Amino acid sequence: MQTRLFIGGEFVDGADGATVDVLDPHDCTVLAEVAEARAADVDRAVAAAHDAFPAWSATPAAERGRLLLRIADAVEAHADELARLESTNTGHPRRDSAGLDVPRTAATFRYFGGIADKVEGAVIPVERGFLNYVQREPLGVVGQIVPWNFPLMFCGWKLGPALAAGNTVVLKPSELTPLTSLRLAELLVEVGLPPGVVNMVPGYGATAGQHLAEHPGVAKIAFTGSTATGRRIVEASAGNLKRVQLELGGKGANVVFADADLDLARNGSAFAIFHNQGQACIAGSRLALHEDIAEEFLDGFVELARSIRLGHPLAEGTEMGPLTSPLHRDRVLAYVKVAVDEGGEIVTGGKAPDDPALADGCYVEPTIVRADPASRVSQEEVFGPFVTVTTFRTDDEAVALANGTDYGLGAGLWTRDLSRAHRMARAFRSGMVWVNSYKRVGPGSPFGGVGGRAGARASGYGREMGFEAMHDYTEAKSVWVNVDAELPAWYPRPGP
Ligand code: NAD
Questions:
Q1: Ligand 1 center to residue 157 CA distance, Å?
Q2: CA-to-CA distance for 35 and 450, rounded, in angstroms?
Q3: Atom number in ligand 1 closest to CA 148
Q4: What is the DSSP track for 103-164?
Q5: Interval 127-140: pLDDT, tens
Q6: How far does residue 259's CA lie from ligand 1's centre (Å)?
Q7: Fewer CB atoms inside 10 A, N or C side of the chain?
Q8: Is the entire prediction scored with pTM above 0.90?
Q9: 447 touches 464 (CB < 8 A)
């Protein structure tokens, strides 16, 4: 297991020699002691990325793409090992890490390998005699800060477009889940990525993360994490006015209309909230049911939730593992009390499972709560296997519910009426909308937040994935060439 910082192509100890205990969420034992990056280490990493930038940005885009394709191949070649490591560190059931996280990581690197040399500039029709062309140039050294919920996959999302566009990177994994990022760093060395092009500095947010966000040598900070930290990132970025991209929290509405295929909607809604123990920014954590089908839907949905098999992340047949940290488990369980205090009804779950084999871990039962849409549990991101339920009568009420928080990241709707599907997709203020489905992502499809309530932007701004992400990692440079234009008469001219 790799436990050291990755700077300038080498694995090194932190300057202060400090380490962070990384836990196994199944039983809260220490899995590894990982070197803790502090400010001096971040400085070294930024310097290494600066040294690597001239050669990397001048490397032909097709060659950068070829290296990204090799990274994709390396991820696939080590798929089983990476899935096990990710499951052990995060608690994701191996079914999910092997079936979703690792393949999606490989697919993302492959996609950006493919488009590295397809981001074209433009020739702009301008006044006669001038040629004006626009080319896209990399930004320089970019800082990337990722959370603990999908650590490996987010390395792909962040590194793919940044590297394809010719930037060099300092990436800070979460202090809780650095293990697959560091294993990926070893694979980057194996495929021949030049030293310093990617640097990894696991460490605490308040020290390493904050220093990276403030760093005057960093041209852009791409952040995925909570809304509160996002605000701090914006403040920290002000010193050199670095570009900021924010993928923040969510409170995904999942709206079931009376004409929906209820079996499909129940299964999709369970995936929407219980996949990855609900620790997903796009989780469908607010279920809104049409009055006419609410009870019928809920009966089957509660039964489905109770049937989910909790267990060790590596055990065959496990459908939900532990949450990723004890602190987070306590945070999620604290919301159960909030719900009850506010008059909500815990329909099922709301506690740790009774199974003694899971007693030392961060497990929480699938939890369904009837709650008022204005209550805290319906407005704040719980980020666990915790879904609120409410009902509506009209399409307008459904839209008001969907848009009734400060978040606006992902939303789902279930209906057999094609017109309603498109009407609702347009009306929901969220970056992604899924119709008769939930939580689909793909490397070519833009991913990011808008706001829910008018003016709110709690889900952040900027886009991951696709050409949108490539553009976010480049600057457009406009070049004007005087081909045969007459200079205007009022231009100063030489001579007496
Ligand atoms: P977090 O904001 O606590 O931490 C995220 C990362 O930021 C970690 O690496 C952390 O060390 C670092 N960090 C913390 N304080 C910092 C500071 N002052 N300066 C710089 N870096 C700092 O979030 P989390 O608890 O790790 O992750 C959960 C949150 O992430 C949820 O709110 C979730 O919705 C969000 N999330 C969003 C997306 C998305 O794409 N929109 C995806 C996944 C998770």
A1: 15
A2: 36
A3: 26
A4: HHHHHHHHHHHHHTT----EEE--STTEEEEEEEEE-SEEEEE--SSSHHHHHHHHHHHHHH
A5: 999 999 999 999 99
A6: 38
A7: C
A8: yes
A9: yes
pLDDT in tens, 283-319: 999 999 999 999 999 999 999 999 999 999 999 999 9
Ligand 1 contacts (CB < 6 A) are 145-149, 172, 174-175, 204-206, 209-210, 213, 224-226, 229, 232-233, 247-250, 281, 381, 383, 409, 449
d(C-alpha 431, C-alpha 449), whole Å: 5
Return the best residue to mutate from 36, 144, 145 for the ligand 1 pocket (most ligand atoms within 8 A of CB). 145
Q: Whole-angstrom Cα distance, residue 7 to residue 291? A: 57
| 333 touches 185 (CB < 8 A) | no
Q: Ligand 1 centre and the CA of 178: distance in Å?
A: 14
- pLDDT greater than 80 at residue 493: no
Residue 238: φ, ψ to 5°: -70, -25
Alpha-carbon separation of residue 186 from 4, 10, 179 (angstroms): 11, 9, 11
Cβ distance 46 to 141 under 8 Å?
Answer: yes
Both structure tokens of 94: 């191996």
Residue 319: closest CA among 365, 250, 287: 365
Q: Active-site residue 247, yes or no?
A: yes
- Find the helix or strand (DSSP H, E) in which 478 lies: strand 474-482
- Taking the centre of ligand 1 as the mean of its atom positions, its distance from the CA of residue 267, in whole angstroms, is 29
pLDDT at 442: 97
Q: Which of 86, 214, 247, 464 is catalytic?
A: 247
User: 455 pLDDT band (50/70/90 cuts)?
Assistant: confident
pLDDT digits (tens, 9 = 90+) for 185-194: 999 999 999 9
Percent of the chain past pLDDT 90, that is, above it, reads 96
